[in-house]
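Lecture notes, unit on protein representations.

Consider one protein chain, 204 amino acids long.
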Amino acid sequence: MDFQTDFHFVIRKGASPSRPLLLLHGTGGNEHDLIGLAEAVAPGRTLISPRGKVLENGMPRFFRRFAEGQFDEADIRIRAAELAAFVKGACAHEALAPPIALGFSNGANMAAALLALHPDLLAGAVLLRAMTPFQDMPAFSLRATPVLLVSGQDDPMIPLAGAKRLASCLALAGAKLSHEVLPAGHGLTQTDLNLMGRFLAAQE
C-alpha cells in the first residue's frame, strides 16, 4: 500500500459487501489481535487493523495515560487526529466505505474519542469495555450512528459509572445506542460475541 502512514497495520479484504471494520486493540495488543474475533462475529468483512503507536512499558496503546483510568487528554486529541487521517487514507486508497469501529478496552476508548472528535469518520461502533475518554466530553452530533456498548458489571478496570456516563454522552449526541451490561469482568464472554454478531449483521 502506497499511501503515507507510520502506522503498522493489516488490511484484509473480504468478500462481503458490508461495511469494513476498523479493529482497535486493547493495551498490549497489536494489529493482529482482533482479527480472529472479527472473523468470528462478522465473517467476510473487510478488516482495517492498525497498531497503536504509543508504548507503555513496551505495550502498544492508542494514547497515553498517567495512571489506570487517568488519561492524557491532550495526547488523545493528537492520536485521534492521526488515526482519523490513517482511516481516511486507507479507505480512499482501497475504495472502502466509512468503517464500523470494533474496539476493546483502550481501543474502545479510542473509538469513543473518534466518535466525539471526528463524528463523520465512522459509520458505527462496537465499544467493548469502554469508558468516557474525556473528563468533560466535547459537544458532538452522531445523527443516529449505530453504537453497541457492552460493559462488564464486575469489570475492575472500567468502572460501570464511567461506562454509563459514556452511554449518556452518546445518547445525548444522537447515537442509535444499545448499552448492554453483562455479569462479567474485563474479559469477553460468549454473550459479548453473540451481541456483536447480531449488531453487526444489522449494519450494512
